[in-house]
Amino acid sequence: MKRYIIDTNVLVSFVTDRNLEQQKKTVTIFEEAAALKALILCHQFVLTEFVYVMDKVYHLPKDEIGKMIADLIQMPGVEIVQECDFATVLSCWPVPFSDFGDAVIAAVAMSKKRAAIVTFDRKFAGVLKSLGLGTYRFQS
Question: What tens digit of pLDDT does each residue of 52-89 get?
Fold first, then answer.
């Protein structure tokens, strides 16, 4: 079964129309998961960042954000990851990852072998590739 670790920008693109091309691309992954053909791994840090963005950037009501999260965690093919090896996080933050959240996602990938990280952040994807960590390639 395919396994994906999602970055916050993927989740934001899925639920908003900020970038319709990105939104369309994310649908494929979520449809695969809903059909139990893939597993989406979402770290709790991604959920925390998602709440912040939806609240502070998009100014959505907190109850609406909560409903989005409830829908996500109840969706077939989605698993919320709670654990994180902070020794691994700190070994790759602030170098090579200057963003702490990126280091958390990378650490999850290091512990969840055979899982591709899904992100729209090209810089993040480049560092992941240089470390030999797999990234998901969206179809054009």
Answer: 999 999 999 999 999 999 999 999 999 999 999 999 99
Q: Tokens 């996080």 label which residue?
A: 89
Residue closest to 11 by CA, chosen among 108, 22, 62, 77: 22
Residue 43's nearest CA partner among 77, 90, 84, 76 is: 84
Torsional sign, CA 120, 127, 91, 99: negative
Task: For residue 139, give both structure tokens.
Answer: 């179809």
Edge-first strand order for the sheet with 38-43 is 78-81, 38-43, 2-6, 116-118
**Token pair for residue 114?**
């055979």
Q: How far is CA 134 from CA 68, 95, 121, 124, in A?
A: 28, 19, 14, 12
Residue 7 near residue 117 (C-beta atoms within 8 A): yes
